[in-house]
Amino acid sequence: xxxxxxxxxxxxxxxxxxxxxxxxxxxxxxxxxxxxxxxxxxxxxxxxxxxxxxxxxxxxxxxxxxxxxxxxxxxxxxxxxxxxxxxxxxxxxxxxxxxxxxxxxxxxxxxxxxxxxxxxxxxxxxxxxxxxxxxxxxxxxxxxxxxxxxxxxxxxxxxxxxxxxxxxxxxxxxxxxxxxxxxxxxxxxxxxxxxxxxxxxxxxxxxxxxxxxxxxxxxxxxxxxxxxxxxxxxxxxxxxxxxxxxxxxxxxxxxxxxxxxxxxxxxxxxxxxxxxxxxxxxxxxxxxxxxxxxxxxxxxxxxxxxxxxxxxxxxxxxxxxxxxxxxxxxxxxxxxxxxxxxxxxxxxxxxxxxxxxxxxxxxxxxxxxxxxxxxxxxxxxxxxxxxxxxxxxxxxxxxxxxxxxxxxxxxxxxxxxxxxx
Length: 421
Description:
The structure is a single chain. By secondary structure, the protein is mainly α. The chain has 17 helices and four strands. A two-stranded antiparallel ribbon has the order 1-2. Helix 2 (about 10-30) packs across helix 3 (about 35-50).
């Protein structure tokens, strides 16, 4: 471990300088030789580093979501070229290039923290061995060796012998209790962070091996922290516990305000957003406008939670605009389709006139013609109120009736068929 840490010795001086500056501030309040002064200096170092890594954290979130979106395509490539690993790798790299996705982007925050972690370990290990390192001179070294956190020195480890702990003015029992408690907290915070990611902020519509791997890491990482934690000094445990708590809080904030599309967290967020928008009649914050703008831009690609949100706004007379704002419009009594059209209007637009058969058209045509002729005759001919006799047939009516019955009008009649004789 010392060999690995020595590789990052180039950053040991900056890390020790930052710790000394924070120690000067906290030492003036709590005393220079107290565990509070040195412990808070390490905590402040973590906070400073994590603030600088926020852009990388945002990039990690985007990369993780992009990887979740690509899982169905990656699975197809694996099945298509399962017997050709080289072609499979080429297609994977092509897919990453086309979508602008980098699988290593999700590991950037951890990789960026590694130099600071090993540098801090190197500094605390030097304090335990009584060696000056970086900007920590002999007086600061003696002060750090006197500092105890809950009875455990900063440089003490769970595996240290009784003689080593006696040199640091500490008892093995107190050191093991404090380090074991911190290791449990460190592993529990790591487990909870990964668990809330898998249960709340994962697209439930995507079922791929990537999700199974993430679920497995939820149990593997805490075990790894517990195994390696027994070899970490108390100061390093303070560093790692602080960065785990920071990550957990930062992830809770992201899940609450910018959840992954299709996840349970998005359903809860859109429900809260719907209540806020319907109560105030508009989107109030920039983050809300960004979410609404992204939902409107999806169109037919919206998931069930997003369609429910848009339909709910339409029912109360609100319409989401392309710029993320919400304006008043006509209330819709029927739910909308995926493209934003009311289902009743879409059904009416799809309904076509019923096609009639040939016999129905032939039957309807003489009937309509007869109705027209009758109405014209009744309206054009005057009625004689004094005529009491039977109505005389009009000239040509018999001919028309015979013609309708199949007989010829005038002239010789068609002979009957021989088969009917």
